[in-house]
Amino acid sequence: MVELWRTFAWDEIQQRYRRSMLGVSWIVLSFLMFVCGVSFFFSALSGREMENFIVYVALGYAAFIFISGNFLDGCQVFTSSRVWIKAMSLPYSVHVYRSLFRSFVTFSLQMAVVFPIMIWSGWTPGLITLMAIPALAIYVLNAIAAQYLLGLIAARFEDAGHLVASITRLLIFVTPILWVREGLDGARAFAADLNPLTHYVEIFRAPFLGEMPRMTSWLVVFGVTVAVWVAAALSAAIFRRRLPYWL
Amino acid sequence: MSHIFVQDLTVTYPLFNRARSSLDTQTAPLDAAEGFGGTQRLVRDGRGYIKGVRALDGISFEVHEGERLGLVGANGSGKTTLLQALAGIYPPEKGSIVVEGQRTSLVNINLGMRSEATGNKNITLRGLASGRTRAEIEERRAEIAAFAGLGEFIDLPVDTYSAGMRMRLNFAIATAFEPDILILDEWLSAGDAKFRKAANERMATFVGRAGILVLASHSASLLQTNCTRGLWLHDGKVHMDGPIDQVLAAYEALGNGRSTIKA
Known about the structure:
Chain A: Its main location: membrane. Chain A: Pfam families: ABC2_membrane (PF01061). In chain A, about 75% of the residues lie in helices and about 0% in strands. Chain A is mainly α. The interface of A and B includes residues 7, 8, 11, 241 and 246 of A.
């Protein structure tokens, strides 16, 4: 099974960039363009040094792309696998793993760019950096459930895809990626904390910046993870049998 | 070991853009007389809106090792849906399907392939999807390519194939891994004479291995060559079940089931 979804995902990645000359490096290039461009203009607004701010943006943006990418991919995970779901009986989770593997490859490529940037800015790894590992595990765990759940919803209700895309577009502005939460006054900082993504991004980014993520962040992330898994497991149990009829 | 057991199988396709029939319900008997069973297969909600189409309605039968079952019936009688249910693609809405043995299905030749990927890549994908290992796939690759007769096209995207080439590749992959149960839809009769001969030979080797073949077709000769038993579907129900010759004779006597059948 592992072999199956890995092959599917690789094939899809290659396919997506086959016709372009620079191929897969577009993932890296477009990421770099965004991070450098944004850091250049926004570092003045944030009051941080350009060297520090670019690392802050790069880490936050890579995390954000992974999370929001899983929302968007999740909406298509079953509809885009229609050709296989209607042709043979495979566990539907295969399609989720395929999709997740693809976004993880994208994420790894982007992180491969982030590291040189961090070293350039004078970053040295510490023990606290290891805290990013459980954060990454939590990301993957959430992505599986979120994709399965969104996949089912979007297969039944086509509008879900449009709704999720609109929300995701907004999320990049309300999540502290281009701005820094610490610099805000009470009300705004509280509002930022109401957004679960603030905490998801923080548990991954803070360890790299040599800061311990707040306990609040870990608690929020833990609670949301449990909720997403319960929702996904329940929906799968009830609606999985209807999926091929919806596609 | 292969065995199929189907009990009281019912499948309804949901309809999400609820439609109100433009036909007066008074005309329903006319529809039924046309052989489409029409109105009685539409599932309605309390307000008369159509919310689904009942494709299969309480079907029960059993297929034993070595039996080769031919499905006959007019368009819309439920043959393809039954094949998809047997293949495990559509879970039954009501009733049950128990299948023992490794099954492979070829119901729609446009599905189960990545059309942007090459023929070779598709052999790998389909092989893995049917639970084969890399080694088993490599072992069969040359044989599949030869049977499909694609030549150098095997390294081109499936997009560039003609319908016939697609069909040959699909059939070659599906049969190469020697499934216990092979489920085929009527598109097989669309092949040219050379392919039909090769396909018939391949299906004949099935008998020796005590596999089960389920084949839906409108071609009497294809069914006669490859099947031992016939199952006649009408309006999503089993109308007749018996030796293929008898079923075909009865079916053809009724002008391919188009005229009225008294349920």
